[in-house]
Amino acid sequence: MSETFFSCQPIFDDRQQHWGSELLFREGLENKFPSIDEDTATSRILSANFLSGNELDDQLRYVVSFSETALLDELPLSMPVARLVICISEKTRPSPLLLNKLRAYKKAGFMLLASSSVFSNQWLEHINLFNLISVDMDRDDPMRWVGTISDYPDIRFLIRKVEKQEEFTLAQQFGFSLFQGYFFEQPKIRRQSDVAPSVITLLDACIIINRSPYDIDEITDVISRDVSLLYKVVTSANILAKSKKKSITNPKQAVVYLGLESLRRLISLLIMSNMNHQECLHLQNAAILRAIFMQQTAPMLKGLDGDEGFLVGAFSFLDAMLGCPMEDVVGHLDLSQEAKQALLAQNGHYGALLEVCKNIEHANWDWVSKTCEKLKLKERVVLKAFEKAREQTQTLAATMQV
């Protein structure tokens, strides 16, 4: 059992009725900014509030901030449309891919919120994507927004940091329709109990979904081994199955209803909520490079599978990421014996390719040349595969930049 702390600051309408709340991750009972990165914080907020059985008011909306990475990974799609308000991080800039995602979120029924800075940057030409715009009273004169508010009747304007009755009255007169600040209520630090699924079970689920995507029984079996994961899968299925008259309670039914893409999104969210994303970022990029390299080179050796090679490369940093010996990690994963031996001792052909990759990383060219000759691989082809993997990794990293 773990606890997630978060700040919950209410938002009110012009009749001072409770409209919703903003949820911000905190690391304890003090209302201080956390030291973890935004994606990890968002994942923990979503898991603890929407997937843990903690009851949220069906009549309220909950504002949660999402980075560009989280939006492109479609993390909001596992959440209830009627209750989640997607807040776009101020660091985020529009791109064709992101704009398509935001249009899809809005079409699905999610509300999109952005800060007032969108009127002074690249977002201005896409301003009609947003349902809500927030303005900070301590940084901006609310009177300046009178004309803008009247120009955009389809957008609701939220004013933050309202501390006095006269500020609330003036903001009403200027056209603001949502309000937040100490005048109404100070933010409260709340704690939610949440049982996090085992990281090993999550990784096993990743393996099974990628290896046997159409084997529903096997996928259901691995999910059912962890009570917390099973609960979150069933909860997520019921969130998405809002139109069904009967709730989903059968594990297999939940897996079938979610489908592969929703399962992958949910498991990615849960893995992120278990790790400090910032500390693992450089290891993740290195693991992606190895995974792509192994996927491309494994078929060059008879009897090796590219997808299994990908898993060996991807999991080669798990001991560092999880802070435990590789023996403890590999012993619980549903990998072939050849893949396990590659990770534990660089044995076998998968292990040899992994060693080749490591030595290219360290520019040990003599060793690389001799090993390629021993494996009857063309060194030039292998180095070209590494360079291609490096370029693909850089492209992926750029698209996920927060």
From TrEMBL:
Ranges where the HDOD domain occurs: 189-381
Q: Which UniProt keywords apply?
A: Plasmid
Keyword check for rRNA-binding, yes or no. Answer: no
Known SUPFAM superfamilies for this protein? EAL domain-like, HD-domain/PDEase-like
User: Which Pfam family, giving just one, matches this sequence?
Assistant: HDOD
Gene3D superfamilies associated with the record: Hypothetical protein af1432
Q: Which PROSITE patterns match?
A: HDOD (PS51833)
- Stated name of the protein: HDOD domain-containing protein
Say which species the protein is native to: Salinivibrio proteolyticus
